């Protein structure tokens, strides 16, 4: 990717994060960088194109986190580290979750991709659950779709935890990531076997500064 294109994306990300999408136009981005809007339009014809490019950066970051989700020595630690890595990715691009509904309404390409991605994530999640069941760390389901519904709860938390932070505390910080990643991680505790509970208690993740 060219230097100008990189600079546009970095500047747009900073503006979206600090001001919210509603207040940021192509002209705002161009003026902040110090280039003409025509120069910016050469790389991105619409603001939607910038949002899409940033969205796919998020997807790439989340994919990398999931790829390292299960650690042989302590599978639960791997899962918890993955949760935090994913939340840190969204912290870097926090405008996306804060303007989540707006983006999904306005960007058809992102919405279609995201809907397909959620189905893929559910399959990956259920596969992870099967691994943890095989290792004796999570109990078998007690009723149909129990773990599908657990995924839905995780998904709701993942999509809207940041809005909750802003409503309650005014802004998102790394301390928020510590707090809410712990909230998400604790959600799995009722499903753990005794062996899983002991392993859970042995996991100690350092707080983010």
Structural commentary:
By secondary structure, the protein is mostly helical. Helix content is 75%, strand content 0%. The chain has eleven helices and no strands. It is elongated, with a radius of gyration of 19 Å.
Brief overview:
Residues 25-44 bind DNA. The protein is an all-alpha fold. The protein is built from 11 helices and no strands.
Mean pLDDT: 92
Q: Tell me the overall shape.
A: elongated
**Describe the biggest sheet?**
none
Secondary-structure element sequence?
HHHHHHHHHHH
Helix content range: over 70%
Compute the number of helices: 11
Radius of gyration: 19 Å
Please identify the oligomeric state: single chain
Please tally the β strands and state the result: 0
Structural class by secondary-structure content: mainly alpha
Tell me the span between the first and last alpha carbons. 31 Å
Low-confidence stretches: none
Report strand %: under 5%
Pfam family, one: TetR
GO molecular function, one term: DNA binding
Organism: Hyunsoonleella aquatilis
Protein name: TetR/AcrR family transcriptional regulator
Write the layout of secondary structure elements.
Elements: H1 3-19, H2 26-33, H3 37-43, H4 47-67, H5 75-92, H6 94-98, H7 100-106, H8 108-134, H9 146-169, H10 174-186, H11 194-202
Helix pairs in contact: 1-2, 2-3, 4-5, 5-10, 8-9
GO molecular function: DNA binding
Keywords: DNA-binding
Protein name: TetR/AcrR family transcriptional regulator
């Amino acid at each position: 990717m060219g230097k100008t294109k990189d600079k546009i994306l970095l500047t747009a990300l900073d503006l979206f994060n600090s001001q919210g999408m509603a207040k940021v136009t192509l002209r705002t981005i161009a003026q902040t960088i110090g280039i003409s809007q025509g120069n910016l339009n050469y790389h991105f014809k619409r603001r939607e194109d910038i949002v899409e490019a940033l969205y796919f950066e998020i997807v790439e970051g989340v994919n990398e986190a999931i790829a390292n989700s299960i650690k042989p020595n302590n599978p639960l630690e791997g899962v918890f580290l993955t949760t935090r890595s994913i939340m840190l990715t969204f912290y870097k691009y926090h405008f996306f979750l804060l303007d989540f509904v707006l983006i999904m309404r306005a960007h058809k390409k992102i919405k279609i991709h995201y809907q397909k991605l959620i189905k893929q994530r559910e399959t990956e999640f259920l596969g992870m659950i099967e691994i943890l069941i095989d290792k004796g760390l999570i109990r078998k389901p007690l009723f149909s779709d129990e773990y599908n519904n657990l995924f839905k709860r995780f998904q709701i938390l993942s999509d809207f935890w940041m809005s909750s932070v802003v409503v309650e505390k005014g802004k998102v910080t790394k301390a928020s990531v510590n707090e809410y990643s712990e909230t998400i991680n604790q959600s799995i505790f009722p499903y753990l076997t005794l062996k899983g509970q002991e392993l859970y208690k042995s996991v100690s993740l350092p707080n983010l500064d």
